[in-house]
Specification:
By secondary structure, this protein is an alpha/beta fold. It contains 4 helices and 10 strands; from the N terminus they run βαβαβαββαβββββ. It holds the Pfam family Metallophos_2.
């Protein structure tokens, strides 16, 4: 099962459109996981129409319409793994332990908010993934998203993809 992980699209405030590399990755994915901060319903509609399957949450910058349509926390079993998607996880210090305690029956936690790519494993095995942002790099060198494969209870091929400035416009 091919997965696309993204978050913090912030359209149209941080970019005018979804970057073409992210759209291409969406076309190849079996499941798209979006960890919130869409900021407009048009982007949600695009993802809903284009993704084979979308598992998504709202973020702190999403207004009432998006909050009415998307949960704060989403769960999905994909490729034999239990995924949880949430926008915010709090400060980086202590994140692994805090999230392992908060989500004890999760194998993979996908989160956003910071725009900082993150890939760690908590004691006990919880994998934490933040794909960064495909439209707003903030203090990061690149705009980013992730892809991965989930099959037979294993998460493999976790890859952080860079979006070059010319591709993000």
């Amino acid at each position: 099962m091919r997965l696309l992980l993204t978050s913090d699209t912030h359209l149209p405030t941080r970019a005018r459109k979804v970057p073409p590399p992210l759209l291409d990755a969406m076309d190849r994915a079996d499941v798209v996981l979006h960890a919130g901060d869409w900021t407009d319903t048009a982007t949600l509609e695009l993802f809903t129409a284009r993704a084979r399957r979308l598992v998504a949450v709202h973020g702190n910058n999403d207004g009432p319409e998006l909050r009415a349509r998307l949960p704060e926390i989403a769960h999905a079993e994909l490729g034999g793994l239990r995924f949880t998607i949430v926008h915010e996880t709090g400060p980086a210090l202590g994140r692994e332990e805090r999230c392992a305690e908060r989500f004890p029956s999760t194998d993979v936690l996908v989160f956003g908010h910071s725009h900082i790519p993150w890939d760690t494993t908590a004691p006990g095995g919880l994998r934490l993934l933040n794909p960064g942002s495909p439209t707003d790099r903030r203090r990061q060198p690149y705009r980013t998203y992730m892809t991965a494969r989930a099959d037979g209870g294993e998460l493999t091929e976790v890859t952080l993809h860079r979006i070059e400035a010319a591709e993000a416009r």
